[in-house]
Amino acid sequence: MKAPVRIQEEDFSQDDEIAALKLVSVRMGGIATFLGCARDFSEGREVSAISFDAYDSMALAEMNALRDEAIKRFGLIDARLVHRVGTVHGGDNIVFIAAGAEHRAEAFDACRWMIDTLKERVPIWKKEITPTGDAWVVPHP
Amino acid sequence: MITLLFFGPVADSVGQRRIEIEFSSGLRLGILRQQFAQDYPEAVRWVSFVAVNGVQARDDDIQIVDGSEIAFMAKFSGG
Question: How far is A20 from chain B (nearest CA, A)?
């Protein structure tokens, strides 16, 4: 079985990730997921592709810490986080997060917290490739 | 040796992803920050975080040991 936290170039299967999460326990009554996808339009301009760079070792350590923290903080049964690097195009998958809990409330809360916190704490950078040039994305405060 | 690592916009601005420099005793993070700003004034505009051996470091007095990996990083934009 694939590791619950991964950074990879290749695409992932949501079905496989959810199946892996469900295998952990039959006590899981709610699974909340977030799928981040590439858009072909951003800040008023067309986007041909998005390129991701990462400080792999630190990013993986931070994502593992995020998972551990989410499990403890929200009482999850388990969680999975997968982020792609390299180049993706409009409609492609970028990031997948799944939170499995006994009940839906903690699953929803944890899933939201994990994606919000991933954006703040995980060293990954996004460059939008457009017909008029490339630009690194600077997050809004 | 000390390894300086650059990613994303910082790497683009510096023009490379890693630089090896000689270790000298008494080296502190603040000295490395100052040297980086002096050598790469364009790249330093991007830098919001520094990590020492994979852990974010905010204290310029942190002592750098031989073999350390120092990453100069822009604001994160993953997800």
Answer: 22
Give residue-wise pLDDT tens across range A65-92: 999 999 999 999 999 999 999 999 999 9
Mutate to test the interface with A, among B6, B7, B70 (most CBs of A within 10 A): B7
- Report pTM: 0.95
ipTM for this prediction = 0.95
- State how far the Cα of B12 lies from the Cα of B3, in Å rounded to an integer: 17
Q: Cβ of B78 and A55 within 8 Å? A: no
Domains of chain A: 5-39+57-125 (3.90.1170.40)
Distance CA A93, CA A36 (A): 6
Q: What CATH number should be reported for the domain holding residue B35?
A: 3.10.20.30
Q: Looking at the domain assignment, is residue B23 inside a domain?
A: yes
